[in-house]
Design goal:
The chain contains 14 helices and twelve strands. It is an alpha/beta fold and 364 residues long. The structure holds flavin mononucleotide (FMN).
């Protein structure tokens, strides 16, 4: 176990390191999304192209995430597939049968289409949460489909979407994920939060950047925090730039959030949730898996992807997943170069065995 070194004031330290005779005091309490307890209050973020069943299964095996989420699913595409009596989207791989709690995220700008899909997810798939994407800044979604973060300029429509999805989902809670606004000089997250709550959502997640920021700059957690006093009923989940157990602890200590959500950092470190969960519980933080364990993890990830997509496609998909595991490590470039042309499982096993980077890069 690694001793957690935190830059906390003495009061916070006292909270974390409670006396041995008492239960360690929680830095962050579990919270509820409707009837669902999120415990620990640390959520795995939806990430298109990444947080499929294979990734979620790995996160689940390490533990520490109180709620897992799929990639975003396009509601219009889902309805179209239904009309063609075709198989449901690949992005719903695993959703019908995998353990709960599980949130499925959907996007579109048409309230009726969103409601139709919300109902299917609630009734047929029996998901724990239907989450609505109002944060995606990608052109395909904003300019072409007037959805995702594009809707932050249209709170009325956001409200109608949420109301109709909530009505269609019955007892299944509906949540919303937003950014702070469209641009830095059009931050309207407080107004939006009130619309989200007023329309009947059960939780709000805020990524502390604007749509125009894309991923530039830093997430503004002060802006996230400012939303809290304006919510009377629903929990607030903060998101952005959390890449260590220390940062998660710090976010709970400094900002008025009920939960936190982790995205990019978990792609190469799916064990991060378990480390963060231990830290907020005041328990010793589990060490990173050893090199051998990480190599085994890559093979496990590959096997899970193969089960769905077959070896050929799994090799192509694994090119990007494997690179995440190597990111920030010395030797990552060589590993990436080799993985980029991966064609067969045998090649993958050999690359993982011989070229998976051994150590973290030293920051200069
Ligand atoms: C590759 C990628 C795909 C993403 N896909 C989604 C998505 O499908 N739905 C969503 O709400 N956010 C999506 N996001 C945004 C993340 O959920 C998260 O809000 C953002 O990355 C900030 O958190 P982080 O700093 O922990 O990465 C995506 C981010 C990345 C990097």
């Amino acid at each position: 176990m690694v001793a957690l070194s935190l830059e906390l004031p003495p009061t916070a330290m006292t909270t974390l390191a409670s006396t041995p005779t008492s239960e360690p005091k929680l830095l962050a309490e579990p919270f509820f999304i409707g009837p669902l307890e999120v415990n620990p209050p640390i959520l795995q973020a939806p990430m298109a192209g990444f947080t499929n069943y294979a990734f979620r299964q790995i996160v689940r095996e390490y533990g520490g995430a109180g709620l897992l989420a799929t990639e975003m699913v396009n509601a219009r595409g889902f309805v179209w597939l239904d009309e063609q009596e075709a198989e449901h989207p690949d992005r719903l791989w695993g959703v019908a049968d995998e353990p709960r709690p599980l949130a499925v995220q959907i996007w579109d700008n048409d309230p009726a289409t969103m409601a139709k899909v919300g109902e299917r997810l609630a009734q047929q798939y029996r998901v724990s949460v239907v989450d609505i994407n109002f944060g995606c800044p990608v052109r395909q979604v904003t300019q072409k489909a007037h959805s995702g973060s594009y809707l932050l300029r249209d709170p009325d429509r956001m409200g109608r979407i949420i109301e109709q999805v909530v009505a269609a989902c019955g007892s299944t809670p509906v949540t919303a994920k937003i950014r702070l606004g469209c641009t830095r000089d059009q931050i309207n997250a407080i107004d939006i939060a009130q619309v989200v709550e007023g329309a009947g959502a059960a939780a709000l997640t805020v990524h502390g950047r604007t749509a125009a920021d894309m991923f530039r700059g830093s997430a503004d957690w002060d802006q996230i925090s400012k939303i809290k006093p304006h919510l009377s009923r629903i929990p607030l989940i903060g998101n952005g730039d959390l890449d260590s157990a220390e940062k998660v602890v710090d976010a709970f200590r400094r900002y008025a959030v009920d939960g936190v959500m982790i995205a990019r950092a978990s792609l190469g470190k799916p064990w991060l949730f378990s480390q963060a969960a231990a830290a907020v519980r005041g328990q010793p933080v589990p060490e990173e898996p050893t090199l051998t364990e990480q190599q085994e993890l890559l093979i496990h990830h590959f096997d899970l992807v193969c089960q769905r997509f077959g070896e050929k496609k799994a090799c192509i998909l694994m090119r990007k997943y494997a690179c995440c595991y190597a990111q920030g490590r010395r030797g990552a470039r060589e590993f990436r170069k080799r993985v980029a042309t991966l064609e067969t499982p045998e090649e993958f096993y050999a690359i993982v065995k011989n070229f998976f980077p051994r150590e973290e890069a030293v920051e200069i």
